[in-house]
C-alpha cells in the first residue's frame, strides 16, 4: 500500500492501470493509496473526470512523440505528418485498445465531448498551427483556435469511426480533410 500525498499520486496509479490495460477502479485506487474514497473523489472528482485526465495526459505524450518523430516537411505537410503519426499511435496503443474494448461508450463520450481531452488536444493543435504560421510556413484561412478545434473534431470523427458504427478507422479521410483545411487561402 502506498501513502498518497495528493491528486498527482492518484493520476499516476490510474495511468499505470490504464497503460496496463486494466480498469480504473476508484475503490482499488483508494485502497492502494491508503486513503478513503471520499478523499479520492475530493481530489480527482468522479471516475470519468479521472479517466479524462489520464487520457488527456496520454494524448499529450503521444502528440509530443509524434511531433518529435515527424519528418523534415514544413507547413501543411508537417502538420499532416504529425497528425498521421499521432492517429496511428493512438489506434495502436494497448491501453486504449483495452479501454475501448471494455468501455467503448465511456471512451467515446469522454473523447468526443467538450472536456479535458478535447481541451488538451485543441491546445496542442493550436500550438502546432501557431508555430508553423508564425514561422511563415503555414498561411491560414481561419483563426488558429477555430482551425485547431475543427481539426481535432475531424480527426476524432474519422479516427474513432470504428467505435461510431462506421467500420474501420478512416485515417486517410481525416488527413485529406485536414489538407483541405490547411490549403492556402
TrEMBL record:
Sequence ranges assigned to domain QsdR TetR regulatory C-terminal in this UniProt record: 75-182
InterPro entries registered for this protein in UniProt: Homeodomain-like_sf, TetR_C_36
Transmembrane spans: none
One Pfam family from the record: TetR_C_36
Name this polypeptide is given: TetR/AcrR family transcriptional regulator
